Amino acid sequence: MLSAASIGIAFSEPGDDTEQLLRNADIAMYQAKDSGRNNFKFFHQAMHASLMEYHELERDIRKALELGQFHLAYQPKVNVHINQLQGLEALLRWNSPSRGPVNPNDFIPVAEESGHIIPLGYWVLDEVCRTINSWRENGLTPVPVSVNVSARQFQQPDFHRRIADVLHKHDIDPALIEIELTEGLMMEDTEAAQRELAQLKRIGLRISIDDFGTGYSCLSYLRRFPIDVLKIDRSFVKEIGTSRDGESIIDAIISLAKSLRLETVAEGVETPAQLNYLLDHGCHVVQGFLFGKPMEKHLIEPLLAALDQGGTDSTAVVRALKGFG
User: Fold this and answer.
1) What is the C-alpha to C-alpha distance for residues 21 and 13, in angstroms, rounded to an integer?
2) I need a labelling partner for 32 at 20 to 30 A (CA). Which of 52, 121, 127, 139 fits?
3) Cα 56 from Cα 48, distance rounded (Å)
4) Which pTM does this prediction carry?
5) CA 275 – CA 294 distance, rounded (Å)
6) N-term to C-term CA, the chain
7) Residue of 242, 241, 184, 169 whose CA lies nearest to 214
8) DSSP code per residue over 190-235
9) In Å, what is the CA distance from 168 to each residue of 118, 172, 309?
10) How far is 101 from 167, CA to CA, in rounded Å?
11) Residue 2: φ, ψ to 5°
């Protein structure tokens, strides 16, 4: 079996010594790796600027971790069939003193590549558990909170033990925590993933597959892995009413989930037309701007209070969501 190679090519410029030439070739090689294995790239000065920007962002992420500059926002998941707040998704946010609000799409890939995502991931879980306890202390009944887990964190050999330790420290019922993973993460090493997921299920956690349909979509793993939820990616939801192909994928995911007795959650629901389509086709749990943007934790408390007051059949929750969205 031939191994894939990534090659960086640099040409000598006036004033360059051998060391600089090698550094430039290294920069080009890493760019080639980022573009996919078995590839090559020629060095140009824009690569150097990109590398410097990466290192500056990586340094700022490290400082933000040390100084506690990250915080969480929570986006509601609503069961529209019974007008009930069914859960929340914890989303990482960073308001940098020097950069201002930083888009997660910009800083999370750098945190992942640099390894900072590992302590960040455990901080997220710890903060979620701390918040659940604060809601309980205020006399509120918490709903399950889903936490996104990165590939590097999931692949740590002590991952499930670290999760169990955090839950034990805060005395949190594992049923209140849902772990969200991507398809690609589990397909990298299916046997190891299967063992780790089995450990997480023994702890009592729920397992959700995020962005389902955008990755490998290998149907065999749905039978092998102890999964509870399939999340329909927002890219398919966005195509409702404009693309029959996108709607067909949604229909297939919902049908597949039903046959395997899995729950479906649709992400990125923004219009009544999208909601009506999902309801008509059997997906009753949704999240998106139609019901609420990600909110600070203190804004979630009125939603939990409305849920407590209204029981399982109240429109108060939906009215509260629309008020805060």
Assistant:
1) 8
2) 121
3) 12
4) 0.82
5) 18
6) 54
7) 184
8) HHHHHHHHHHHHHHT-EEEEEEETSS---THHHHHS---EEEEPHH
9) 19, 7, 29
10) 30
11) -80, 140
* Residues facing residue 41 across a β-bridge: 8
Identify the residue whose tokens are 């936490």: 147
Question: Residue type at 196?
Answer: E
Tens of pLDDT, residue by residue over 63-122, are 999 999 999 999 999 998 888 889 999 999 999 999 999 999 999 989 998 899 999 999
CB 254 within 8 A of CB 220: no
N residues, the chain: 325
DSSP string, 291-312: T---B-HHHHHHHHHHHHHHTT
The maximal CA–CA distance of the chain, rounded, in angstroms, is: 75
For residues 303 and 135, is the Cβ–Cβ distance under 8 A?
Answer: no
Among 110, 152, 145, residue whose Cα is nearest residue 130: 145
The residue whose two tokens read 């799409």 is 105
